[in-house]
Amino acid sequence: QVQLVESGGGLVQAGDSLRLSCAASGDTGRISAMGWYRQAPGKERDLVARITTGGRTSHADSVKGRFTISRDNDKNTVYLQMNSVTPEDTAVYYCYVRCVRAGAFYDYWGQGTQVTVSS
Length: 119
Prior knowledge:
Distance between the termini: 40 Å
Strand content: over 45%
Shape: elongated
Number of strands: 11
Mean pLDDT: 95
Structural class: mainly beta
Number of helices: 0
Radius of gyration: 14 Å
């Protein structure tokens, strides 16, 4: 089993900054990638940012220049620094991790953390 514990969500005002954290523990095996998705009410879950073990990152166009994903491999923890947030960033943010065990990939999801941005 793999556990993902998220923290850092909350209610902020437009223009504020916020940092989300997600720590993975348990039978992770080798972690190949970690990332963040978000889901707003009535919408699909979309990728926000992703980072590989080697540090290669990708960010959704809607957050480029404002959000930054980073990772501490020793702690199996991924972060999402969110700057200049807008009401459009309001969503439940989900952490995910892709683990590799015996040559197979396994994806795990956190429980989600609510981010609400007021105008």
